[in-house]
Amino acid sequence: MSSPNKSLLANPGMHWLQACQMLEQHGEAYCIATVVAYVGSVPRASGAKMVITEACQFDTLGGGNLEYQVIAQAREGLTSQHNQVAIERFSLSADLGQCCGGAVQVMFEYFQTQTPQVVIFGAGHVCQALTTVLTELPCRIKVVDSRNEWLSPLQEKGVDIEQLENPADAIQYLPDNAYLIVMTQDHSLDFDVTRLALEQNRFAFIGLIGSQGKKQRFEFRLQEQLSNPALLNNLTCPIGHPDIQGKLPMQVAISVSAQLIGLFAEQTQPTSMNETQWKQTNEARKALKEIQS
Fold this sequence. Notes:
The protein is an alpha/beta fold and 293 residues long.
């Protein structure tokens, strides 16, 4: 599991469905906790939901020790990458020391999201167009550059940015399986980023913008400098879908986006509730009805 996104803050006032949509976009694993049954006096009735991540929570089941215990159990499941639907009973008086006196049954549904992360090196014209397209797709976007004047417009439209004097320094702490697009304003910087990324040998895609001539020059130097020349097999240059031609920034952006969409489709695990999870949920609800009858 990827580390929690520190930019996401707990917001009990956000509706649980809005939270799910936001978390899917950010690639953050989460748990939906739902009150599915209750007896006696309880803070909230059946159907109440809250969403819990490793670092945040959204909406509410009524607060108090019940909510504290639900959050703790959800986070334990997230940490262990639990993916089974579970229903737990909480007694508000005996177990949790709340004065309500009732009891609730809470269903825990886990969503171990794997939203792909695209990291773009270089915030120039093509990047500006590319992020316009990618912000409409189910992926996380990060742009690394040394120039604030190019990064600022991206930040205004919600793109995660990082300003570094040497953008190549970002390579060492990028997540595994990220999709890297190298398109800086400097060929020497392109080379440094590409070489370091290839040496890491842990990214899903390393794409370098450029012509066949640029590819040949880079490959000649990389063969001399890489610890293992076979790592060159992980480099894609030129980038973009072969059926989409054009050199305008938006044409290149659409071509690269199409290529990325194809790569994303190769991921084997969906980011939302799949058929197995629907089956688990329905079976859990059926078992609950049998207990109550």
